[in-house]
Amino acid sequence: MKSGDIVPTEPGDYSIIINKELSIWEALFPIAVLIIMLAYNIFIYGDGALDGSNQFILLLGAAVAAIVGFRNKVSYSQMMEEVSLNLKSTSEPILILLMVGALAGTWLISGIIPSMIYYGLKLLSPTVFLGASLVICSLISLATGSSWSTSATVGIALIGVGNGLGINPGMTAGAVLSGAYFGDKISPLSDTTNLAPAMAGAQLFDHIRYMLITTMPSIVIALLFFIILGFNLPHTGQADIHDKLGAISSVFNINPWLFVVPAFVIFLIIRKTKPLIALLAGAVFGGLAALIAQPDIVIKAANGTILDMDTAYRGVMNAITTHVAIETPNAEINDLFTANGMKGMLNTIWLIICAMVFGGVMDAIGALSKISAALLKMFHTVFGLFASTIMSCIFMNTTASDQYLAIVIPGKMYKKAFETKGLHPVNLSRTLEDSGTVTSVLVPWNTCGAYNTGVLGVATGDYFAYAIFNWISPVVSLTVAALGYRIRKLGEQI
Fold first, then answer.
1. Backbone phi and psi for residue 303, each to the nearest 5 degrees, phi listed first
2. Same structural domain, 270 and 386
3. Exposure winner among 78, 137, 180, 442, fewest CB in 10 A?
4. DSSP of 54-119, one letter per residue?
5. Are residues 108 and 33 in the same domain?
6. Cis bond upstream, residue 256 (ω within 30)
């Protein structure tokens, strides 16, 4: 194909762009520059790097990639077209982020999140909390098919409960995400679970059954880790548990009936309602619940004196859009009852946009396909093919900054190679999910990493080591491939 040819892929607007004039070193150069700049920027800013400087570094990386593109006869309009397609693909995630911010605000002032924290503190001890969090999130994500929805509902509450118990939020986030991505990976309702077999040419339920070979050991390892970790945690959160419970109940009207709202949202998602619609409904009903169950809190959120129409509107709208903080008599837990609404998601949205610009330019100049092709040529054995696929998926999550591209591009690039080796398509589809789906949340500027950092309020670096399921999955996948265990050949029954 000539320089700049676009090979359409299914589904949607995803494409693989091949630029024969680009060398592998030119393809790698923008990535090397980006890594150096990000490393220096994080050294200077530390945890504050995501407040804006990392975003600009991603744009500088895109500029370096554009210069490489100009040198290889890729026009500015081609780059902008690909960036536009990338940004278009993030429209729904960005709106979902805004709805999550709105939902967190109304669920705070309505008492939904405080009630979850209250009952969670009452029922869960530090010893069992992390293991229970993984199991709860696994069940919710399995039922909904959505890791994002799981993080945005029970995930937020579990972070609050964990903080109340004195547990490192990175540990809690790791348990939440391990469970959330377990369900997302094997639920037939999940978009990635459907996308991976579509790219590889496998059947959905064959793909799910074959994934159990690597997925079950991974989740068992994660569960055992959190159980052991729980038994070794210092029980610092138990000493003043009664003071915390009293502080919460003195400010909020704690009532199990409030759980009707999150149960309704989960029901909508299980019924295949679009997450954006379900979360919007959750935010609206959360606001109504606040007016009914927590009128005094709504007055405080509005900085008013009496609950009239204007105060009710201002209180709920402040929770949806801006910062709301509810103080309790216990200063230790006050941080649990703050929300930044839609405004609090803007940094995350900014990061996603800049990451999509870098990924779009890299795709437009043909750098992503060039590196994938080079990886493919490095390996000639069956194990090497599996290893190359996993490396490509992780690479795409890091550079293209999008979970779907990390499945689509390697899926299209490696499909023929798996067929040539006489391997059943489920080998490829499972490998795409073992690496492309689950590692996306480990990259700070990937849409999944940025989203979960924004929703859970925990930096990627803080939960990385504890997201056991997410980084152990590609390791287990490689181990199974190295052992040659149940590697299906073409024509074999799954």
1. 55, 40
2. no
3. 78
4. HHHHHHHHHHHHHHHHHHTT--HHHHHHHHHHHHHHTHHHHHHHHHHHHHHHHHHHTTHHHHHHHH
5. no
6. no
φ, ψ of residue 234 in degrees (nearest 5): -70, 135
Q: d(Cα 335, Cα 313) in Å, to the nearest integer?
A: 24
Contact 166, 236 (CB under 8 A): yes
Per DSSP, the three-state class of 468 is helix
pTM as predicted: 0.72
Residue numbers of the domain that contains 237: 92-343
Q: Residue 490 in 3-state DSSP?
A: coil
Residues 119 and 78 in one domain: no
Residues 290 and 173 placed together within one structural domain of the fold:
yes
468 by Cβ neighbours in 10 Å (0-12 / 13-18 / 19+) ranks as buried
Pick the last residue of a domain from 327, 343, 359. 343
Domains identified in the chain, total number: 2
491 in a structural domain? no
207: CB partners within 8 A, 6+ apart: 193, 196, 197, 200, 426, 429, 430, 433
Q: Evaluate whether residue 493 is within a structural domain.
A: no
Whether the CB-CB separation of 16 and 7 falls below 8 Å is answered with yes
- Is residue 147 in some structural domain? yes
Question: 443-482: per-residue pLDDT in tens?
Answer: 988 889 988 998 899 999 999 999 999 999 999 999 999 9
> Contact at 8 Å (CB) between 284 and 100?
no
DSSP 153: I
Range with the poorest average pLDDT among 147-156, 242-251, 374-383: 374-383
Q: Distance (Å, rounded) from C-alpha 410 to C-alpha 387?
A: 12
> Given its phi and psi angles, is residue 3 left (phi above 0), alpha (psi -120 to 50 degrees) or beta?
beta
Query: Do 186 and 236 sit in the same domain of this protein?
Result: yes
Both tokens assigned to 321 = 């859009």
Question: Which residue among 303, 318, 343 closes a domain?
Answer: 343
Is residue 489 included in any domain, yes or no? no
Q: Do 315 and 278 have their domain in common?
A: yes
Q: Are residues 275 and 354 in the same domain?
A: no
Whole-number Å distance between alpha carbons of 207 and 186: 9
Output the six-digit token pair for 401.
Answer: 């900054």
Whether residue 162 sits in one domain with residue 109? yes
3-state helix, strand, coil in the chain (%, to 5): 75, 5, 20
* CA–CA distance, 432 with 195 (Å, rounded to integer): 10
pLDDT digits (tens, 9 = 90+) for 106-132: 999 999 888 888 887 777 778 889 999
